Known about the structure:
Elements: H1 27-39, E1 46-49, E2 52-55, H2 68-76, E3 88-92, H3 98-106, E4 110-115, H4 118-130, E5 137-141, E6 154-160, E7 164-166, E8 181-183, H5 186-194, E9 199-210, H6 215-224, E10 227-239, E11 245-256
Parallel strand pairs: 3-4, 3-6, 4-5, 6-9, 7-8
Antiparallel strand pairs: 1-2, 9-11, 10-11
Amino acid sequence: MQAQLTPVVIPGPRVGTGPGHGPLGSYERSLGRSRESLTRADRPDVFTMYDREWDLFPEVFAPVYSPSTRVGIEFLNLARPRTRDGGSFLEMGCGTGLTATMALFAGYDRVVASDINRMAVANAAANAERHGVGDRLRTVHGDLFLGLEPEERFDVVFWSSNYVLAPAEYSYRSAHERAYVDPGYHAHRRYLAEAPLRTTSTGRALLHFSDRGDVPALYGMADECGAELRLLATRQVRESEYGDDVVDHLLFEILPRTA
């Protein structure tokens, strides 16, 4: 069963107030979703999305149980083939590699898919091979940008992030949990500082966030990093797979702060 996706444009996001703000932002709840996703009896080895079959490896985030992958692809306009005429695309936290592979179908000619989870890196490579683009999609194992060559730059840098804030002292109990929560927003702070440095002169550093996360904290970190956030798009989604939550998904561009 796939989560329902009913996007609509909304005036603006709701905001949080720190780790575990309200039921939507509860990091304990997100960790519970992580555990349930791994242990469900109906967790597939292969799933269908965008009229294609995709492998799903153990310990890898399952797009069938969350609308976030579809929302990200919609934000990036990757659902339709050949909407781009070349260019380079970097996906952080690639998971199954679905988004990165769709970027190739959309017309990007150089795509890199990176993840800190070794199983996800293998999963992304397997799906690229499954769809005949293994020679054009490069997979990288690393913590954010650490797996890349120092000189590498991209027209689009994109991360659909683990936007739920966990306490800074929380220690991950599995690689899978990294897809759900970010203790102390350490990874987000690094991304805000480093992503703009990995773009070409006309490139864009993008962040897919939601109001499950702490939006005011994100703005504050951007300011501390000498950056500003431009809200490019919003989508309101009813997530029916684990309850009946309505979540505001947000696409930000990270820009150098102007004077």
